[in-house]
Design goal:
Layout (H helix, E strand, L loop, with lengths): L21 H28 L4 H72 L2
Helix pairs in contact: 1-2
Amino acid sequence: MSRRKEDAPDPQRVVIGIAAHPRAARGVRRARAYAGLGGFLLGAYLAHGAGLPAFDVLLRALLAGIGAHVAGWLLAIAYWRAAILAELEAARAHRDALLAEARAAAESRAQAAADTLLRDTAASAGR
């Protein structure tokens, strides 16, 4: 089945993903690593404290590490999605403020040029 023209992605639209974001990708990797390591250590501590044999301690620590790794990954993805949207909104607001400032400056320059032109015209007509 071929794609219809309406279903084709817009080439003008820019899509910003977590993998392409410079800090988000690094943050997700770091969160996954710390969550997995923390889950492993917590699982090992709790299993060892329960008096289990070494094999069971390692097995439960690995399972806890895998679970914490996945949970940390999901939480990091949710966080960075919201953070990227907030960064984009802040950048848009900053751009809008700069545009408004530039428009105001251009209007004041245009008004000053018009006043100068009117004064020069009035001065030359009054001679």
